[in-house]
Design goal:
The chain is mainly alpha-helical. It has 28 helices and no strands. α8 (110-117) runs antiparallel to α9 (123-129), α16 (212-219) runs antiparallel to α17 and α20 packs antiparallel against α21. The two termini are 27 Å apart.
């Protein structure tokens, strides 16, 4: 945090860019965050406030910070803020802080919701989350104001929900179909489209990924988006995991591969086969349950180099096979073989001087120390 390089301090402030949801990141200590928030460069301060890794205790402490940007960040912890801090943020001298706070508090305050509806910058979000009085709800339906947002509102009267369930706008009908209070019969009676790769971002399911009842409702639903939302939980019990694994929905498979520690091998292989060469395939391939045994026999001579690369994962792959794969036409296969400690030493030394293999060979744990020293000597790294 005292590094002279702005890039280093900014990187520390934001934290690691983690793309694998199975990886957990410990937040920086509050005292370190406080120092970074006082950094003289605004980009360091901004990176800290955008970090997804802040401890809740630190976020709460921002409610009384002198910087309005920090106070806006504190609002994200609204439900755990002390009542006094919430009141202060609602009356904050900065208008953006007040508006951000009001968008949280309006979930239980119809007056605040009505105020926010008069501001074009906050109207859609207030309609989505705020406590509505009937007159405002009816007016929005009649004027067709932000109907997709309104269709998600938890306080929308039941008769207006029914009107929106037959709205001519397909996006509105789809949003209604995802409401948590609907039973399966009513939900599936709505005419809604679901695109093949829609992600299933359903707030009430996302907020209940550790709640057994929410998970069971979503995972057993006939609605594809609810099943896809449930598949993002690492807490699915075995019966629901098994049930979702049998849907053969590509999006469900992908989420199970990303999020669940016990995803079956066949699901991981389906993801790899369908998305080979993509980030999703890499996530599946790096899953602890991705198969290893038997891959050499199955894939060493596969016509697709992406599959030949899998042969390197097999503990039974021989040094002869690893060397052969280090000459493979597919560069990813060659690189995988160059990283493998079973690669014969002569070929490993050779790979250090081949541009597309040098990085992989340098990471090979079988590389002798004298070769490591030679690499650094060639790079001019002082001994």
């Amino acid at each position: 945090m005292d590094d002279p390089s702005l890039r280093v301090r900014t990187a520390l402030a934001y934290g690691p860019e983690v793309y694998d949801p199975r990886t957990k990141v410990a937040p920086l200590p509050d005292a370190v965050c406080a120092r970074l928030l006082d950094d003289p460069d605004p980009s360091v301060r901004a990176a800290l406030l955008e970090s997804p890794h802040l401890a809740p205790s630190f976020v709460v402490s921002l409610a009384t910070h002198h910087d309005p940007a920090a106070r806006r960040r504190a609002v994200r912890a609204w439900e755990i803020l002390p009542p006094g801090d919430r009141s202060a943020l609602l009356a904050d001298p900065d208008p953006e802080v007040r508006r951000t706070a009001a968008l949280w508090e309006c979930r239980r305050d119809a007056r605040l919701t009505a105020d926010l509806l008069r501001d074009p910058r906050s109207a859609a979000e207030a309609l989505r989350r705020g406590l509505l009085d009937r007159a405002d709800a009816e007016r929005c339906v009649a004027e067709r104001t932000h109907l997709e947002a309104l269709a998600e509102n938890p306080s929308l009267p039941a008769d207006l929900v029914e009107r929106l369930a037959v709205d001519p706008d397909v996006a509105v009908r789809l949003t209604v179909s995802l409401r948590p209070e609907l039973d399966e019969t009513r939900r599936m009676a709505i005419d809604f489209p679901v695109e093949a790769f829609s992600r299933g971002d359903v707030e009430w399911v996302r907020g209940g990924l550790a709640d057994p009842q929410v998970l069971r409702r979503a995972a057993t639903s006939a609605h594809p988006l609810l099943r896809r939302a449930a598949a993002q939980s690492p807490h699915l019990p075995p019966d629901l995991l098994h049930r979702l694994s049998r849907t053969k929905d590509p999006v469900v498979d992908e989420f199970l591969g990303r999020c669940h520690p016990d995803t079956p091998e066949e699901v991981l292989m389906r993801v790899f086969a369908r998305f080979g060469g993509t980030f999703s395939a890499w996530i599946a391939e790096t899953h602890p349950r991705f198969p290893r045994e038997g891959l050499a026999a199955r894939y060493a001579d596969h016509p697709d180099g992406n599959y030949r690369r899998l042969a390197v994962r097999d503990p039974a792959a021989t040094p002869v096979l690893i060397e052969r794969l280090s000459h493979d036409p597919a560069v990813w296969t060659r690189q995988a073989a160059a990283r493998d400690p079973r690669l014969p030493l002569d070929r490993l030394r050779e790979a250090l001087h081949i541009p597309e293999l040098a990085s992989s060979a340098g990471a090979n744990p079988a590389l002798p120390e004298d070769e490591m020293a030679a690499v650094m000597d060639r790079a001019g790294v002082p001994a």
